[in-house]
Design goal:
CATH topology of one domain: Alpha-Beta Plaits
Structural class: alpha+beta
Order of helices and strands: HEHHE
Strand order of the largest sheet: 1-2
Shape: globular
Helix content: 10-25%
Radius of gyration: 12 Å
Distance between the termini: 38 Å
Largest sheet: 2 strands, antiparallel
Number of strands: 2
Low-confidence stretches: none
CATH class of one domain: Alpha Beta
Number of helices: 3
Bound molecules: iron/sulfur cluster
Mean pLDDT: 89
CATH architecture of one domain: 2-Layer Sandwich
């Protein structure tokens, strides 16, 4: 897979972590995804890896990845609360 660079960098340590306030999380449909990498580039927290794994410690649930995905392969699903 070709190398892609996110436009931003995650803020390290606890100051960059999301905590428990996120209300939606992205779920990637690997069948629909064409591996274009736009979600990696646009995520403002650089929370999506080259393997399209979302690091939920840093994902803010903003939905930019889902909005930018040309294949509509990312669904924002509501977080479960205990
Ligand atoms: S929802 Fe926002 S923060 Fe989370 S992976 Fe998508 S673009 Fe990044
Ligand atoms: S933007 Fe959509 S199609 Fe492109 S890599 Fe991300 S999930 Fe896959």
């Amino acid at each position: 897979m070709r190398e892609r660079l996110a436009l931003s960098r995650p803020v390290g340590a606890s100051s960059g972590k999301t905590g428990s306030w996120r209300t939606f999380r992205p779920v990637v449909d690997s069948e629909a995804c064409n591996a274009c990498g736009l979600c990696i580039l646009y995520c403002p927290d650089a929370a999506i890896s080259e393997d399209l794994e979302v690091d939920l410690d840093f994902c803010k649930g903003c939905g930019i990845c889902a909005n930018e995905c040309p294949k509509k392969a990312i669904e924002m699903v509501r977080e479960e609360r205990d």
